[in-house]
Amino acid sequence: MITLKGQKIYLRALEPEDLEFIHAIENDESVWEISKTQTPYSKFLIKQYLEHAQKDIFEVKQLRLVISSYNEMPIGLIDLFDFDFKNSRAGVGILIKDEINREKGYGSEALQLLIKYSFTHLGLHQLYCNISEDNETSIKLFKNQGFKEVGLKKEWNYINDSFKNEYLFQLIKK
């Protein structure tokens, strides 16, 4: 599918071979704040998830894709979640797993590809994301792709014995 291919990376469906990669991400406590995770996931649960990951977005209301290099190395994940067909919108989440792969343009290219796919193939009218006020890298990423800050949820998430504000960003199809 040409839509999901960029210059540096491409987006692909989850495969059973992604078990170890996803298990490492889901159990990395340093990203639990971003993913809203509170407990570890077993390989058994992730294997079950992978067995059902090929279901249609219209059925399961989410789509998770692997951000892959052209030498077939998984770099990260990008998701559409809370897919709302009636209101033609979905939330977006993105994670580049290893620091060595961050700030190289992979996230930006993956987000561009997902935006194009969402608006052209899925017919969505808008995308949104929720970003912690101190996640400057993600704020910059989404702003650079045209997302606008539309709200601030005060003391929204309880992290490390304190509450943090969370921004709501939105991109409406032109």
From TrEMBL:
Residues 9-170 form the N-acetyltransferase domain. Pfam families: Acetyltransf_3. One of its GO terms (molecular function) is acyltransferase activity, transferring groups other than amino-acyl groups. It comes from the Bacteria. Signal peptide: none annotated. PANTHER family: GNAT-FAMILY ACETYLTRANSFERASE (PTHR43415:SF3), SPERMIDINE N(1)-ACETYLTRANSFERASE (PTHR43415). This is GNAT family N-acetyltransferase. It comes from Wocania arenilitoris.
